[in-house]
Amino acid sequence: MTMLPPPASTSDPKSFGYSTVQERWPKIIKGCIDDVSDHPELIPQFEKILQSIEQDLKIIKFTDEEIALNPNLKFYNDNFVDVHWHNGPWLYLECYIYQAINNIFLKANLPHYDIFNRLKQSTLQSSEVGITELCKKLSSLTLDTKDSDKLVLFKEFIDISLWGNSTDLSLLAGDVSLEDIKSIQGEEIRKKNEKNILVNDTKAIFEHLTARSSSGIVDIILDNSGFELFSDLVLAIFLLESKLCSKVNFHCKQIPWFVSDTMIKDFDELFFEISKFHNKHVDKFIENIKAYLAADKMAVVTDPYWTMSGPFWDLAKFPVYETLKSSKLLIFKGDLNYRKLTGDLNWERTTSFAEAIQDLKNANLPIVSLRTCKADVVVGLPEGVDERLVKEAGDFWSASGKYAVISFFNPRQ
């Protein structure tokens, strides 16, 4: 068996995990202390986590009491890594933190408390222009069109879902038609949007969807709430109305996770916040989503698997696989899902996506990763690209959020 590369580590100054443990995690815990002022009795427990990180103490296994409250923690203990905070696998330790935070609220009999809710909702108001423009455009575009036009639109909606609120919305904003999108100006904007997409399998994904019947389920394993969730809903509407699938399942986290990850309740939070815009196109968008949900053409689901600490390589061994194995396409959103797909290992950056997902490639699942790069691991790059970007943007280009990948593995071709 080929030796795997080591995981990204919090002890490696060349890893983004190093600055994460030194700066980002303490900042997140301090933010929790500020935001839990309505339950001051919980503050000492957050201070204990903060002290443990800052003093680089050894992490400890979850207790029997904690496992009784959350049986999924047994997985963490079964795969326990006996390390200190500043010298361990970044992915495991980061997942461990959010489970430890959740434990505080479970012990306090506050199982539905989302300590990150204020941060999640604060970002939506700044996205009002983008949201209203996209809702307006959705109401005017004919989405069920011929395949050549459908591909043009598919690229746009994939880009919106990929970049979230950092995307250039100029192509879909205002009173533009499909002909405008296909125009020379549209092509220029598309090239501008695509120059930082280092791996772009969009056309192959579209061909996979159109090579089969219009029926079938697309499963989206979500990342962030707020504008990104909105953009994922926009993509889902396009997939359904263009008849590229007959249903979209949205897979959420069960607990507050990595600050901004989507939970089931964040759908209603999104609808409530954007309804404050008092815009007829936004109201119509909300109405359409709720109609799709009522008709079972969209579904919002969750499973504890998405908050485990390990790679997704063993997905076929867990119950969630039964709900995914007949999927027409799985779309994994965001940086964390990419890290879990690839094991968060220090792969050579020219390693193929198929190799990096290891045993998952044997699960017969068509897998897409839409990922803005905010961590160390990147695979599938052509020769010389990494070296060029290091010269242009420095060693940490892969954690800057300025570059992205649209990677596709298809075992059914």
UniProtKB/TrEMBL annotation:
<dbReference type="GO" id="GO:0016791">
    <property type="term" value="F:phosphatase activity"/>
</dbReference>
<protein>
    <recommendedName>
        <fullName>Sugar phosphate phosphatase</fullName>
        <ecNumber>3.1.3.-</ecNumber>
    </recommendedName>
</protein>
<dbReference type="GO" id="GO:0006974">
    <property type="term" value="P:DNA damage response"/>
</dbReference>
<dbReference type="Pfam" id="PF01937">
    <property type="entry name" value="ARMT1-like_dom"/>
</dbReference>
<dbReference type="InterPro" id="IPR036075">
    <property type="entry name" value="ARMT-1-like_metal-bd_sf"/>
</dbReference>
<comment type="similarity">
    <text>Belongs to the damage-control phosphatase family. Sugar phosphate phosphatase III subfamily.</text>
</comment>
<dbReference type="InterPro" id="IPR002791">
    <property type="entry name" value="ARMT1-like_metal-bd"/>
</dbReference>
<dbReference type="InterPro" id="IPR039763">
    <property type="entry name" value="ARMT1"/>
</dbReference>
<feature type="domain" description="Damage-control phosphatase ARMT1-like metal-binding">
    <location>
        <begin position="20"/>
        <end position="388"/>
    </location>
</feature>
<dbReference type="GO" id="GO:0046872">
    <property type="term" value="F:metal ion binding"/>
</dbReference>
<keyword id="KW-0479">Metal-binding</keyword>
<keyword id="KW-0378">Hydrolase</keyword>
<comment type="function">
    <text>Metal-dependent phosphatase that shows phosphatase activity against several substrates, including fructose-1-phosphate and fructose-6-phosphate. Its preference for fructose-1-phosphate, a strong glycating agent that causes DNA damage rather than a canonical yeast metabolite, suggests a damage-control function in hexose phosphate metabolism.</text>
</comment>
<dbReference type="GO" id="GO:0005634">
    <property type="term" value="C:nucleus"/>
</dbReference>
<keyword id="KW-0464">Manganese</keyword>
